[in-house]
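Training component of the fellowship. As part of building independent skills, the fellow (R.M.) carried out the full modelling exercise for a liganded target. The chosen ligand was alpha-D-glucopyranose. The inputs are recorded below so that the supervisory panel can assess the work.
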Amino acid sequence: MRRVFLGLVIGLLVILPGLVKAGGLGKMVGEEQVADGLLLKFENGMMKISKIQEGIIRVRATDKDKFEEDRSFALSPDAPLPKRISYQKQGENLVLETEKIKAIISPLGGKITIMSKAGEVLLDESKTSGIFFEGDKPGVIREIFAEEHFYGFGEKTGPFDKRGERMVMWNRDKMYIKDEDPLYQSHPFYISLCKGMAYGMFLDNSYQAVFDVGRSNPEEFFYQADGGELNYYFIYGPSPKEVIQGYASLVGRYPLPPLWALGYQQCRYSYRNEQRIRSITAKFRKYNIPCDVIYFDIHYMDDYKVFTFNHKRFPDPKGLISDLEKQGFKAVVIVDPGVKIEPGYFVYDQGMEKDYFVRDKDGGYFSAQVWPKDVYFPDFLKPEVREWWGELHKFYLDLGVDGIWNDMNEPAGWVKDIRPLPDLMIPSGTPAWLEMVHGDKDNPEPHAKIHNVYALLEADATYNGLKKLNPEQRPFMISRAGYPGLQRFSSVWTGDNTANWYQVKMTLSMLLNLNISGIVMSGADIGGFLGTPGSEMYARWIQQGVFYPLSRTHTAIYHKSQDPFSFGKEVREISKSAIELRYQLLPYTYSYFKLANDTGLPIMRAMLLEFPKDEKTYSISDQFFWGEWILVAPVVEKNAKNRKIYLPAGKWYKWQNPEQIEGGKEILEPVDLSTLPILVKAGAIIPLAPVMNYTWEKPWAPLELEFYPGEEKSCFNLYEDDGTSFKYLEGESLSTIYCQEPIISGYLITKQEGKGNYQPRARELALKIWGTENPSQVELLTNGNQEKLVYQYDSEKRVLALKLKDQVKGFQIKVSYKK
Ligand code: GLC
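Fellow's submitted model of the complex:
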């Protein structure tokens, strides 16, 4: 009976919104320049339009007579502030302008048309209803252009191009076998791409929201939030990369991680005692399969109580973690937000004493069940709670723990034995969870507003806590739930996925969209969390997984072992060489993490980011770029004998192969289980490290530099530092630009003098030039000196190899060919 009643209530909630009449802003009745923008007054509400940067404007709209307090959970503290925007009247319309864009606003309903300075229309509401309000729910409807494509939206299953999709933003604990929506993260951000021109749209409203991208009406883009204001940022490109950089200037960038976080990581639910942890880590070393990180899932805790260790299973965690460190393993432990209700348990006692837990509408504390059974949730909206939570992590740091894994932070759980409750959260939130209220007791915020940012606030607390407790070390954390801004603190994994062939393929489009959405440190559970992959599937999954920014195998409780050695010798060898390649690429990859930290550009890049004018790339997500030069085309089909790969126009090489391939076409590569097709764009300079067991086992010595000659000059900026501390912020880093260019009857390599104070250990440089002729001579040019260099030429592989002592100073190497 209760079930039926609940169903009825939820059903009504779905139907009700349709009964509320939607209205617009009506006629414009006046305008006024205010300190932070242009205020437009309408019969039924207001709009405020501000300039943020040359190509970024912000639009707010409300049907109330006052805007809400201007508070964003997402914006970075150093995001540019809203400013006035210049405007003029043209007939009835207002024309607003920045250095890069023009917006025309109609006096009827404030419909907006945004175009480039050259007059190319990017966004248009003039033929649709534009801004609307339905009860307390603001929204907007715009036209979709014939050739428009949509990407981003964060962590979404389904097709890569989101045109034709309907997506909900509501952080939800939901395992997925095929497609599911919503999942754990909510990113109300997307990129529109139409004939090579892109703009971005960030709708900064934390309430549950719906995006209907031409699903209900193929010509209309529909957005509606469950509360709050319409509050968006229009971010002009015109390239998708410029959009991503503009978005990063608003919500921030991923901090430079400790180098070890770029190593391969191993997890399971759970390595449930010391013996299991020791045996799995020993296996990695026995088989010489590189691995940097081992995870402790919920069984390490005493009765699932966070900030405790179970001493029966783990009698000496400090000793264990210190032994792991000696073998090159970092320890990451899971921390869920739910605090067990148990008087005498110090976290519970402190939280109760200080009134730190989330309350319910009746003034009591809100309880739900998670792994420890009944729990309370820390109220991360309160700054003092974030501070407290951060400080609690001293417990882990004292034991030598290196990183923190935040799970169940949607928040997830089940209430009063209805399981799994999270499913019931859509479309309007589960009544039970909506009992939660956050923040100031006398003036609380509804859960509907805080839900999607709960994990973000927790990550802020955790990251800053770790940094404060150990200012010498870059914190590392991983989070399941999130909202824009999370990237300033945490990496992300895509939750409880499943071992099936559909997901082997779909995971790539999911991660590419997550990366477009600014989450540059992301990965999926390699091999699938639910279900067990066969050996072929695991081999294929790890081949792509070594090119996830966060590369981690994980599996669920009661499942078979899932790691590089549990699928027989052949797959062990395949896994080993894929993981070894990840380690060799560390100097290249780490340089891109620095670039991501400086610009927001992802390391794992959709094809369209590199070739936005090539419309063939708009639908490709089963191959992608790793940085700017490496094109990865993992095999994603069962029993594959061939792999079709699309090469955009230009010249290409196969990985460590001399043959040049002309692009602008598809190629067909024969494959067997061991093949991981990788191509390199001509002009590439790829720095490589020696193979090692863990990222900090050996210095990058010799540093290998592979050159794939191109027709024009190209450069690579190699970034190095100590890999762990914040000293790079005080100049303890080294950026070295290497260039290559063809010259008359020769080839020129230039190393510019390194910038910065970091000194790598004395080392050799080992250079390899692919696809070259046998030279007549090779000379080293330094400071006006010329010196002949000894080299080897392999005429079969057509590769030229030479070694020289590295130096901070610059030099040139001139390769001459017989005329
Ligand atoms: C959730 C997480 C999963 C974890 C498990 C136990 O299902 O998504 O990764 O292993 O909880 O903590």
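The panel noted the following from the submitted structure. The first strand starts at residue 22 and ends at 23. The chain has a mean pLDDT of 95.
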